[in-house]
Known about the structure:
Blueprint (H helix, E strand, L loop, with lengths): L14 E3 L9 E5 L1 H6 L9 H7 L12 E3 L3 E3 L2 E3 L7 E8 L5 E7 L16 H16 L6 E13 L3 E11 L5 H9 L3 H15 L9 H23 L1 E2 L21 E2 L23 H17 L5 H9 L1 H16 L10 H13 L4 H11 L9 H12 L5 H11 L7 H12 L4 H10 L10 H4 L16
Antiparallel strand pairs: 1-3, 2-8, 4-5, 6-7, 7-9, 8-9, 10-11
Helix pairs in contact: 3-14, 3-15, 4-5, 4-7, 6-7, 6-8, 6-9, 7-8, 10-12, 11-13, 14-15
The structure holds adenosine monophosphate and magnesium ion.
Amino acid sequence: MQLEHSYAQLPDRFHAVAPPQAARAPKLLAWNAVLASELGLEWLGPQQAETAQIFSGGPLPEEFAPIALAYAGHQFGHFVPQLGDGRAVLIGEVTSSSGQRFDIQLKGSGRTPFSRGGDGRSWLGPVIREYLLSEAMHRLGVPTTRALAAVATGEEVYRDEPLPGGVFTRVASSHLRIGTFQFFAARKDTEALQTLTDYAIDRHYPEARDAPIPAAAFLTAVVARQARLVAHWMSIGFIHGVMNTDNTSIAGETLDYGPCAFMDEFHFDKVFSSIDQHGRYAYGNQPGIAQWNLARLAECLLMICDDQPAFEAALAEFPDRFQAHWLKLMGKKLGIADAASEDIALIHGWLEHLQNNHLDFTLSFRELADQLSTDGEARFGEFESVWRQRVLGQGVEPEVIAGAMNRVNPLYIPRNHRVEQAIASAVEGDFSMFEEMHAVLESPYVEQREFAHYAKAPQPSERVMQTFCGT
Ligand code: AMP
Ligand code: MG
């Protein structure tokens, strides 16, 4: 295997050696053959036993160099100077066919020097959740870490009860987080901060290297990626749930699928996470929180470059960048090819209509598109006539507009109640729903009649009110 270890080669205080623990009876549950082939790992696919062994903790062949990464983070606004990979190990890096470097990380393969009181393990629930959610996000065009493999360990993990254990293999552009910078800033280790910044620039934003103030150009680039990311989340009704700085990727990918969820009924204040008691990470707060997190990154960078106005200027770009992405995405969802600031009121009018009428976020966009092919009654109140005038004013056939809407508005999302059902059956040893759901979500925009139930909103009795963190 052609593995690289660029992060392991950084100074010792960046990481800790963390050999994963071999599972007793590993069984491969899922293998992402397409991703594997992009990463040059396709030859592993047919060798199921060996693949299950490697991606559940080994014993690992010699070319692997497993490490747990050091990081800190603001958790729900409170700073924790040391977190680190407590149940994850980076086993190596690979370069994809497109020339990009990716981390390969096992999640749930046992304790590391950063585990504190935890067992470093994962039960099957979080494994299945992250596999389904991250791959669905990818299919929806949202920047995200990916799923390479899911393995059942054949061992029990104790939560409130014994549960079957699993290991998830995550592929990420990197695992650099805002919290990684905070780890060194908290220790006033400016030498490490400089090394980390140089590494991050080389790996993700090489164009910043030659800018007049590289650290400020780097921050500007991270701001741009976060703005794009959160605009995507907002456009699909996704709530991350734990937007702590340790879960905020420098590369701008969705990172850590813990108590996250796609909304059914739309509400700006919607919160699912059982640990988010004050709604800090509610749907409507996400852009503001991203900007708050980026300010924490700016504070770290100020320790190696004291050009405060340059950092302030970089941070100040967030709202406009977010709005530009949001407007474009939301405009397309509503059938407006080139939405401009005059359309903001219309988009807000739509969201208010959804909220006031307790409508399903995802399905309402499809139903709105259907309205273009009927001369029947308006279904979406006063909004609908204003909207109709706007979209038909583009001078394009209604069917063409409806077609364009249906190409960006998914019919299938990983709905919470279905994810929970897939997890419950997996715990009983039945993985058919997990596999079926994964297959359906590979084509989120195309109607698959035999799988209509995956498109449906939950019945009141099926509704999931809370989601729990990934442990
Ligand atoms: P997360 O909820 O994934 O963002 O994790 C927050 C912190 O808790 C990270 O430092 C994790 O490594 C750590 N952590 C979560 N679950 C476990 C576990 N089962 N064992 C050890 N550490 C854990
Ligand atoms: Mg995390």
